[in-house]
Amino acid sequence: MLLETARLRLDSLRGEDAQALFAYRADPSVSRYQGWRPTSPDETVRFIEREQAVAFDTPDSWFQFALRLRDSGELVGDLGLHFVNADTVEFGVTLSPAQQGRGLAAEAVRAVLALVFDSLKRHRVYASVDPRNLACVKLLERLGMRKEAHFRESWREGDIWVDDVIYAMLAGEWSARM
Ligand SMILES: CC(C)(COP(=O)(O)OP(=O)(O)OC[C@H]1O[C@@H](n2cnc3c(N)ncnc32)[C@H](O)[C@@H]1OP(=O)(O)O)[C@@H](O)C(=O)NCCC(=O)NCCS
């Protein structure tokens, strides 16, 4: 699967991405609110190998887009799509710290929302976020997603319980924005 935006190319993760992926995914500022935090480059290699084994749009599985600058090909982030079922998709997006604050995440997510609603004809897209993750909350609100649930202490993070907030968009809301 390949998507292009003004500044980005979205395609599959490759073996040679492991070092760059590890460098930003293991950064504490990036992994703070993430479920997956690689502890070694080898773990990142295995993550990419697992991703490569799963075809795009396989029910009940994740597909991880690589976000690359169109100009240089540099890996600047990734965007995971969870094909929950035939109607619903979840996503999560990550940028390397050096590439944040440029609008790249919003650009990538808009391209993926267009794919999911216009081409794949899904009914609902959602993202799950720790409400302390203000950069992500801002991103989801900037994209026009609607806050529809706040689950109190629904995840255990080590010794503490943390909240989970759900932002969603329906196909009708996506088309009404056009
Ligand atoms: C969540 C995350 C991807 C958001 O990244 P981000 O850089 O804030 O989002 P964008 O790329 O859309 O950039 C938006 C910012 O760039 C600014 N910007 C600069 N140039 C811009 C341009 N040309 N177009 C749009 N926005 C631009 C915007 O004003 C905005 O800044 P602000 O937040 O200070 O108002 C990032 O914080 C991240 O990777 N966090 C760690 C991983 C994580 O927790 N992910 C969430 C899992 S769901």
Automatic annotation (TrEMBL):
InterPro entries, per the entry: Acyl_CoA_acyltransferase (IPR016181), GNAT_dom (IPR000182), N-acetyltransferase (IPR051531)
PANTHER family: GNAT FAMILY, PUTATIVE (AFU_ORTHOLOGUE AFUA_3G00765)-RELATED-RELATED, N-ACETYLTRANSFERASE DOMAIN-CONTAINING PROTEIN
Location of the N-acetyltransferase domain: 8-172
Naturally occurring in which organism (per UniProt): Rhodanobacter hydrolyticus
Protein name, per record: GNAT family N-acetyltransferase
Signal peptide range in chain numbering: none
PROSITE patterns, alphabetized: GNAT
Domain of life: Bacteria
